[in-house]
Amino acid sequence: MTDETDAADAAWFAGVDPGDVDAASDAIREGEAEEPADWPALAVKAGFAEDEAAYYDELREATVTATREAVQERERADDQQLIHAIRSMDDSERTANELAERAIEWGGALFDEVGEGIEGARDLAEREGDNAAERRAISLATRVVDLADERDELRTFIEETAPGVAPNLTKMAGPVLAARLIELAGGLETLAKKPSGTVQVLGAEDALFAHLSGRAPSPKHGAIFTHDFVRNTRPADRGSAARALAGKLAIAARIDHYSGELRPDVHEELRERMATIRARAEDASGDEEAGDSAATDGGGADE
Q1: Which of 82, 138, 230, 257 is the most buried (most CB within 10 A)?
Q2: Is the pLDDT of residue 162 over 80?
Q3: What is the C-alpha separation between 165 and 277, in angstroms, rounded?
């Protein structure tokens, strides 16, 4: 009887009034038991439910509510806000560029000396229209400017938010690339659990699938190509640079997810590794110059 009483006291419904969905939901999310028990029978004996069917009705409503709350909390998490922001920034930029082309084409047919791109749309938006067509073209250009400004403001939001969400990843990759990696992975936790090889090719899924189907070589990098350590490394060493960067980015994401503390040593290790990789280019350049010099000297002696 004592064991049964202890089990009832440890049950998720202990202290919860029947019909109190919020309290039941909290108990489901926060409670735990060392071992299973005959919960339906215990619930009936404790007066929580009239019978087993009523118990399962209470359990279902509590678990559904608990799941809904967990999903809502996840959506409000800071890394999810970064994901929404980077996607919105990309959408704003893409749409602004597409509409800018249309506005410039239209405006060029109505006005003299219309510029190109977003700046051309800004100039067009400041003009005065004398007829309906001109006013519509100007209005379209104004929408382009609004989208371009929204893109800039979203970028500022990302730059301000990313260091608090992922300090090491942001310091290593920059706020925009850090947010993009989190978005591509589906969240900071998911990114932290990915191997470095996967981090290396995030954003190159099409190329990777083409490689797996035998239609293309294996991609060396995905979104991380925009990083200075990859983009500004000579092509022969980009694979090594991408692997080194991806390895440290994976470590940075894990540190951010599990501790959130800034770790300067990780960044110093990456800088030292990149210095070693880039030194190859200098050594190769020196060897080529030595070879050219020897060839020149040899040619002079023959003459």
Answers
A1: 82
A2: yes
A3: 30
C-alpha 255/C-alpha 236 separation (Å) is: 31
> Which residue is listed with tokens 């007829």?
131
Tell me the one-letter amino acid at 215: R
CB 197 within 8 A of CB 188: no
293 and 286 in contact (C-beta within 8 Å)? no
Which bin fits 77, alpha (ψ -120 to 50), beta or left (φ > 0)? Answer: beta
What does pLDDT average to over the chain? Answer: 84
CA distance 247 to 3: 51
Task: Give residue 152's pLDDT.
Answer: 97
State how far the Cα of 132 lies from the Cα of 138, in Å rounded to an integer.
10
Distance CA 110, CA 238 (A): 48
* Sign of the C-alpha dihedral computed for residues 62, 65, 68 and 74 taken in this order: negative
pLDDT one-digit tens code per residue, 61-113: 888 877 766 665 554 568 999 999 999 999 999 999 999 999 999 999 999 88
Q: How many CB atoms lie within 10 A of CB 172?
A: 23
Proportion of the chain above pLDDT 70, given as a percent: 80
Burial 33-53 (b: 16+ CB within 10 A, else e): eeeebebbebbbebebbeeee
Residues 6+ apart with CB under 8 A from 216: 207, 210
Is the pLDDT at 180 greater than 80? The verdict is yes
State how far the Cα of 259 lies from the Cα of 250, in Å rounded to an integer. 14
- Per the CB < 8 A criterion, the answer to whether 56 and 26 are in contact is no
